[in-house]
């Protein structure tokens, strides 16, 4: 009973603030926007939000880059030129190998950076918006790639991977969030699935590049795949600069006029009335959430009914790891260790990435 009173109180406060901001008819407009969104077919949603879909697809290019970047290091463990640069010679039977401790350090460095990058993105995106955080992270990545490209030893390579991982953590959390906010709920499932497709595309490109560079002698054999990373940041920075900011972020920042302009840029063939209703719905939802979560802490995620929700979310994401995706990123090293020829191991990896691409589409 207490929970119902709490929600009711939050509802009243949100309704009052909505009327103050957008007028007495705002609550009715918000209700109309919600009902219209739920009644839309897929094609209607695509037609009315085609610009939002367009910008979401472009922003998600950062995930293609991340998919490419993140599988390089694991596959380099089976790369002859990389093994000779950063490994040791273990005799004619084993040959050149990167030692176990350094393999762990090199493979996990970007993951460590990614954890902190994801956490930092939550703070900075809420404060500065998605566009400027993406631009800043891309600019930093442009510089950090120099560290891994010119790394003279494994220690510097680990440092470079941690720094790059900070940026990759930002991209991994920013792109799905942007995709979910610039389009209505009935399109979010498709656009967030497209984000996963971008991972598969990036990994497929990386597998192709690695296979193609196998016969290149000297340090450039592994440096060329690193250098290709420079192709992405600048174009994505330009896209992020031109893209509209998430109207949800602008509403949360109380920048209502800018949110209205952003909705216009993201809309396809929506009428002025529909866009006004959508803005009213965003303002109302934001105020309602703010009132309902006043005084809430992270500890509340582990109490009562919220604990069940936390478990579902954690297991849904952990399922990717439990299914063996970590090994799927670095199959070439295991194949070569088992006795497979290096070239065949990379061909098999390329085929596996192609299957991942097809599986995501299906």
Automatic annotation (TrEMBL):
Q: How does it sit in the membrane?
A: Multi-pass membrane protein
Q: Which residues cross the membrane?
A: 53-79, 106-125, 132-152, 158-179, 191-210, 230-251
Q: What SUPFAM superfamilies does this protein map onto?
A: MFS general substrate transporter
In the record, what terms sit under GO molecular function? carbohydrate:proton symporter activity
Looking up InterPro entries in the UniProt record yields: MFS_dom (IPR020846), MFS_sugar_transport-like (IPR005828), MFS_Sugar_Transporters (IPR050360), MFS_trans_sf (IPR036259), Sugar_transporter_CS (IPR005829)
The record's listing under PANTHER family reads: MAJOR FACILITATOR SUPERFAMILY (MFS) PROFILE DOMAIN-CONTAINING PROTEIN, PLASTIDIC GLUCOSE TRANSPORTER 4
Keyword set for this entry? Membrane, Transmembrane, Transmembrane helix
A Pfam family annotated for this UniProt entry: Sugar_tr
Q: Which family does it belong to?
A: Belongs to the major facilitator superfamily. Sugar transporter (TC 2.A.1.1) family.
Protein known as: Major facilitator superfamily (MFS) profile domain-containing protein
Gene Ontology CC: membrane
Q: Where is the Major facilitator superfamily (MFS) profile domain?
A: 55-362
């Amino acid at each position: 009973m207490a929970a119902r009173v709490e929600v009711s109180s939050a509802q009243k406060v949100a309704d009052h603030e909505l009327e103050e901001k957008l007028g007495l008819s705002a609550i009715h407009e918000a209700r109309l926007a919600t009902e219209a969104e739920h009644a839309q077919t897929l094609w209607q949603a695509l037609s009315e939000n085609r610009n939002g879909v367009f910008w979401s697809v472009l922003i998600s290019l950062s995930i293609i880059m991340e998919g490419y970047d993140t599988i390089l290091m694991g596959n380099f463990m089976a790369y002859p030129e990389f093994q000779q640069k950063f490994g040791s010679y273990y005799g004619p039977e084993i040959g050149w190998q990167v030692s176990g401790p350094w393999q762990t350090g090199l493979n996990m460095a970007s993951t460590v950076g990614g954890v902190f990058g994801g956490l930092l993105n939550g703070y900075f995106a809420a404060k500065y918006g998605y566009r400027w955080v993406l631009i800043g992270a891309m600019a930093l990545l442009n510089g950090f790639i120099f560290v891994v490209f010119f790394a003279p030893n494994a220690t510097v390579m680990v440092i470079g991977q941690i720094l790059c991982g900070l940026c990759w953590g930002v991209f991994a959390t920013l792109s799905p969030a942007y995709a979910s906010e610039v389009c209505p709920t009935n399109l979010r499932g498709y656009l967030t699935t497209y984000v996963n497709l971008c991972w598969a595309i990036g990994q497929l490109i990386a597998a192709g590049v690695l296979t193609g560079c196998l016969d290149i002698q000297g340090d450039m054999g592994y440096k060329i795949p690193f250098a290709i990373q420079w192709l992405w940041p600048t174009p994505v920075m330009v896209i992020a600069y031109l893209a509209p900011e998430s109207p949800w972020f602008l509403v949360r920042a109380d920048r209502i006029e800018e949110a209205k302009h952003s909705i216009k840029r993201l809309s396809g063939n929506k009428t002025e009335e529909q866009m006004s209703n959508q803005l009213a719905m965003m303002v109302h939802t934001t105020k309602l959430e703010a009132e309902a979560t006043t005084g809430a802490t992270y500890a509340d995620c582990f109490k009562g009914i919220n604990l069940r929700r936390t478990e579902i979310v954690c297991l849904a994401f952990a399922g990717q790891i439990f299914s063996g995706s970590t090994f799927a990123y670095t199959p070439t090293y295991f194949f070569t260790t088992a006795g497979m020829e290096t070239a065949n191991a990379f061909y098999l990896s390329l085929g596996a990435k192609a299957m991942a691409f097809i599986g995501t589409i299906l």
